[in-house]
Amino acid sequence: MLDIINVEKTFNPGTVNEKRALNNINLHLDEGDFVTVIGGNGAGKSTMLNMVAGVYPVDCGSIIIDGVDVTHLREHKRAKYLGRVFQDPMTGTAADMQIEENLALAARRGKRRGLRPGITAKERKEYKELLKILDLGLENRLTAKVGLLSGGQRQAITLLMATLQKPKLLLLDEHTAALDPKTAKKVLDITEDIVSRNNLMTIMITHNMADAIRVGNRLIMMHEGRIVVDVKGEEKKKLTIEQLLQLFETSSGSQFTSDKVMLSK
Amino acid sequence: MEILEQLLGALPGTASQGLIWGIMAIGVYITYRILDVADLTVDGSFATGAAVAVVLILNGCNLWLAMFAAFIAGLIAGAVTGLLHTMMGIPPILAGILTQLSLYSINLKIMGKANQSINVNQTDLLISLRWVKETAFHNPLITVGIVLIVLIALLYWFFGTEMGCGIRATGINQNMSRAQGINTNRNKVLGIMLSNGLVAFSGAFLAQYQGFADVKMGQGAIVIGLAAVIIGEALFGKIFKNFALRLLSVALGAIVYYIVVQTVITLGFDANLMKLLSAVIVAVFLAIPYWKKQYAENHIRRSNRGKNNA
After folding, report:
1. Of chain A residues 28-57, which have a CB less than 8 A from chain B?
2. pLDDT recorded at residue A259
3. What is the tally of structural domains in chain A?
4. Cβ pair B180:A79 closer than 8 A
5. CA within 20 to 30 Å of A55's CA: A127, B65, B123, B254, which one?
6. Alpha carbons B174 and A79: distance in angstroms, whole number
7. Beta strands A226-232 and A82-85: pairing type?
8. Lowest-confidence range among A245-254, B35-44, B207-216?
């Protein structure tokens, strides 16, 4: 379970650059919920995810994951509960380390890192099997540096890393946005597969309306730091892009304007 | 011919110095290459190691214990820089300069004066430049060579452990590291500590080798360390891929650096200009990757222009 309660965040308060990024956000997720998040630039989507991940502190409110209040836990402490994939394929992996080393780092998320071996022979075998499932031909390149891989391959590995230790919550921040359409589809397929196989509670930001509607069991739309649309279950399944835009306009009182979103319709 | 003979005669001494500085250069490699931080603490911690070891040895301390104490002193100096950076938000270069400056006073206090000699005739030492041509364990080439290999083996093991992998990941990608639950601040402090521990250890060897410790002996050490790292990579980077071999190539880089310095001096170059020469060499080597990239980009632009005109 995830509870975001009355969370607010203002960047650069008291300056000309003051930006109210999150305005009293409340969100409750149940076990196994898969929420897609959509919204224009500066709507607060990434800020919300970063608040949950602990990248910056909240101004007020609290964040509770599975009954644990993580509001004041530092980013690396909170990582124990979270799997994260970023928009930039460079962010999620260590380029100058081998594929297997990256996976081994992720396998120790939330555990004490002592003087035991950084990777064991048994792990290598497991990773090989896991990479086979991705079907990207990476199972024979365990010792290749991640920096040599394509963006799609890196995102797939980051997904694997995020879920190697089963997280309470998976955070996907436009993780297919930097990929070409074909690779984006492949990575999204892998995402759906991993999420359903592990029954993961997931929040996925996307700029693709069709994906937002098709994937997951709940959809929220953000505007100026608020959640303005929240559609679930059957209602979401029947939703069309036109209806979604309509919903947005009536609840936010403004036109939906995001070139990126509109172009990828 | 005469010059060649002179050079060959000086070679054992030159190589010994290179080996000693090789340990220091491995320390620089840990911060500069693994952590991706340019740490200037080393100019101070090198002399701190020397001062601690010399004072302890003069007071009758066991030689290896004195070396260990020098290592610990380096760890502490590194911890100060690391904490200045991570807990007080001071940029790493500046944090290193602050520690380095304060170490100058501390080193004076440790020794009680600016220069403390330690005479091999009166005191037993691990190594001395007098013994460079002897076939015995106390020959600096043998003692320092063995210590260097042990250190490389230990570092190879350490950077393969969970903690060591965490430090490497911190140096490569902090966002990813934190997302994987790695305490990046703690790892930066640990890395800078380890680096300065090695640097101080190396300083303790050099003081015994040359027979004195001096508050200024670390001046420009960072440049020599960087030179060794860069020369090692330039000469052996293509063939040495394994981590232990890369550390070895850094030590070999230090030896090559000292052979070049010795050659230049033997050829009659003004020794006072040595530091200038070192700085120029390091500057040029640091610039080469940048120039290469620029050249490649310009080359692409030019060849595209050719296409458009056709």
Report:
1. 53
2. 59
3. 1
4. yes
5. A127
6. 13
7. unpaired
8. A245-254
